[in-house]
Amino acid sequence: MELRTLRAFVEVVRQGGFSQAAETIFATQSTVSKAVRRLEDELGFPLLDRIGHRSTLTAVGEVVYRQAVGMLAQRDDLIAELDDLRGLKKGVLRLGLPLIGSNILFAQVFSVFRQRHPGIDVRLFEHGSDRLEEFLRAGEIDLAGSLLPVSEEFEWQAVWHEPLVALLRSDHALAGRSTLTLVDLKDTPFVLFETGFALNRIILDACRRHEFEPVIAAQSVQIDFLVELAAAGLGVAFLPRMIAERRRHPAVSHVLLHEPHTDWNMAMLWRRGAYLSHAASAWLVIVREVHATGRTSSLGQIGGGS
């Protein structure tokens, strides 16, 4: 069983098809298809149910996929550790940063990192936090920025803590309040980020704790567009306070969200028990230095669980 064959199979599952997987691993669709067939022949079980252009995992395929992801991640750990033992002057940091707040939190970190480690190639992955956690789980990136709480499969280092604010059109009945709860807003449509953003999950989980599902009027990946939608009266949007302050709009009021377990707690994550390369460790050191005064006492621990 070759790792390249496992990689082809994993990418077919992850990308949702053979042609997309072929583009990801820079191979032809025929090569990827043959690799999956070869793996099925070797194991003696079908791994995918092929229905038209769609493929879904069989029960055996789910087991193989889960184990293959772990094996590929261990391979990446081995390569990283051997590179460090060789004392390479140059290295790679595969860094996943979220689309919300990275410009504020990590631009200075990047600058300091470049000054101290000019030989390190930083490969940046930008997605919603939930998607970054998938990449991290699969060993495709070394570190990921995400929101706490996180699964016990990750270790983490705190970065920043901010409350959320609700963004409402200035003439909304609740716009003059000093604080709001989600229950106060349950009759107002929500304007949220796209699926895959941890902030969405945090807000929707809190709504479910209050036993209601909000009406979602719109979703987007663009902060400025969400602000404009709130200004147009489409519904209420939610942003971390420091980000909202940089997106002030004359037609939008900011009201502090007073809701337990909904604060924006940004952290850097890595896989629990995984080898942390010199490059990744150096990044974490600089994050601590740059944001040492920005973390609250409740988030001051390093490498804690969720």
Average pLDDT confidence is 87
The sequence of SSEs as H and E is: HHHEEHEHHEHEEEEEHEHEHEEHE
End-to-end distance, in Å? 36 Å
How are the strands of the largest sheet arranged? Answer: 4-3-5-13-6-14
Q: Give the helix proportion (percent range).
A: 40-55%
Main beta sheet strand tally, sense and closure: 6 strands, mixed
**How many helical stretches?**
11
Q: How many domains make up the 3D coordinates? A: 3
Q: How does CATH name the architecture of the largest domain? A: 3-Layer(aba) Sandwich
Helix-strand layout with pairing:
Elements: H1 3-15, H2 18-24, H3 29-43, E1 48-51, E2 54-57, H4 59-85, E3 91-98, H5 102-105, H6 107-116, E4 120-127, H7 129-137, E5 143-147, E6 154-162, E7 164-169, E8 179-180, E9 190-193, H8 198-209, E10 216-220, H9 223-231, E11 236-240, H10 241-245, E12 252-257, E13 264-271, H11 278-290, E14 302-304
Parallel strand pairs: 3-4, 3-5, 8-12, 9-10, 9-11
Antiparallel strand pairs: 1-2, 5-13, 6-13, 6-14, 7-11, 7-12
Helix pairs in contact: 1-2, 1-3, 1-4, 2-3, 6-11
